[in-house]
Amino acid sequence: MENEKNHIIPYRTYLFVLAGLIAATLTSVAVTQISLGTLTVAIALFIAAVKSSFVLRIFMHLKYENRMFSAAVIAVTLLIAIVIIITLLDYLFR
Amino acid sequence: MTADIHRDDLASKTGMWLFLFTEMLLFGGLFVVYSVYRYRNSQAFHLAAEELSVFIGTINTIILLVSSTTIAMSITAIQKKNKKLALLLIGITILLGLAFLVNKYFEWGSHIREHIYPGSPVLALRGQGDVLFYGLYFFMTGLHALHIIIGLVFIGVIASKIVRNKIDSGNYVLLENSGLYWHLVDLIWIFLFPLFYLIT
Given an 8 Å threshold on Cβ–Cβ distance, is A65 in contact with B198? Predict the structure, then answer.
């Protein structure tokens, strides 16, 4: 079979992403040590989401793969988000 | 049987992703449970979360991030026909995975010494919120640790295939799939870490 896009990602790219991920981790630790109330939760989850997008796009190669994979990942993520939001709406307005 | 054996790397990867989606839904369900219990017991969750060691949690997060990087880099190495470097990077990944488990062992050990574990009478006295927090904590980090163990076995099998030249620069989809599994385990930890250790 023809080996379609056998994209070789340079080692450097991975190391840059790693540096970014560690910086994001330390930032979220630092931010959550300051008490900002509900904002803390939002910031921590936002940083986690940014970190995941880098893991998914670079480490898991979604950026270089068939678009089908990205679309499916987005769909599953949305499904989980919708279930959490609807469940919480139920508890908030009971 | 010397002719070409049919191989479909795209299908193989698709199968792996479909499996990863079921894993995401499994942990997604647990995150729903976590959100509801946290909402209903916010005070107890707040106090209980402060007892977890942010330091060990941060170290373990960095360990997993580095191990994800090394397994990803091993794919580049195998593509460049650098078998030695690929095996070295995979070896580092396995060692880091073991280091994560060792940290987990000490972490759980310190809780258990303080009589905090599911079903503990001491924990029950602290009230329903603490029982729920630690129940979820042990279950979710335990299920995650189980995934680490499975990932280590998976990656170990892949390493032995590389040694035996069953995986090389022309056929490395299995290495990619084991990498995908390992990254998923990392992804789940990226959410477990703030939810249990940081948001207090």
Answer: no
Give the right CATH number for B9-198 from 3.30.379.10, 1.20.120.80, 2.30.110.10, 1.20.120.140.
1.20.120.80
The verdict on a CB contact (< 8 Å) between A87 and B32 is yes
* Predicted-complex ipTM score: 0.91
Instruction: Give, for all 200 residues of chain B, the pLDDT tens digit.
Output: 556 678 899 999 999 999 999 999 999 999 999 999 999 998 999 899 989 999 999 999 999 999 999 999 999 999 999 999 999 999 999 999 999 999 999 999 999 999 999 999 999 999 999 999 999 999 999 999 999 999 999 999 999 999 999 999 999 999 999 999 999 999 999 999 999 999 87
From chain B, pick out residues whose CB is under 8 angstroms from the CB of A46. none
Residues of B in contact with A88 (CB under 8 A): 35-36, 39
What is the token pair recorded at B69? Answer: 């990087």
Of the partner residues A10, A60, A88, the one whose CB lies closest to the CB of residue B183: A60
Are A13 and A59 contained in the same domain? yes
pTM for the whole thing? Answer: 0.93
Give the number of C-alpha atoms closer than 13 A to the C-alpha of residue B28, restricted to the C-beta side: 18
Cβ–Cβ of B176/A55 closer than 8 Å? no
